[in-house]
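I have been asked to look over a protein record a colleague put together. What it holds is a sequence and that sequence's fold in token form. Please read both lines and tell me whether the tokens look consistent with the sequence. I do not need a full report, just your reasoning and any doubts. This is what I was given:
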Amino acid sequence: MTTKKPTSTQEEAQIHSEVLISDFKALMADAEDLIKATAIHDDGPLGAIRSKALETLNSAKESLSSVEGTVTEKAKVVAERTDEFVHRNPWEAIGVAAGIGLLVGLFIRRR
């Protein structure tokens, strides 16, 4: 049984999804700190907004925990498929990359 060595594309996809999840977790932590800092203003309209924000934040945390694994797995699958395509069709991959580079160059030149 041979194990497949992770390619740079797979590693990059994994890193990008981990960074995205980490940034979202940091955003949620900051929002939670902000909500806790407003705890002294618990009455009136600010209290209602605060409780609604806490509910939304808790819902987002639950969603993140359920989606985190799925996003990571999908990123791995996409990276593996891209790697397989490039290995099976190297000249097509070079042509696609050149075409994208040409389009980007044309768009940059027009600015």
Observations:
- The helical segments are 8-37, 44-88, 90-110.
- The chain has a mean pLDDT of 79.
- The chain is about 85% helix and 0% strand.
- The two ends are 53 Å apart (CA to CA).
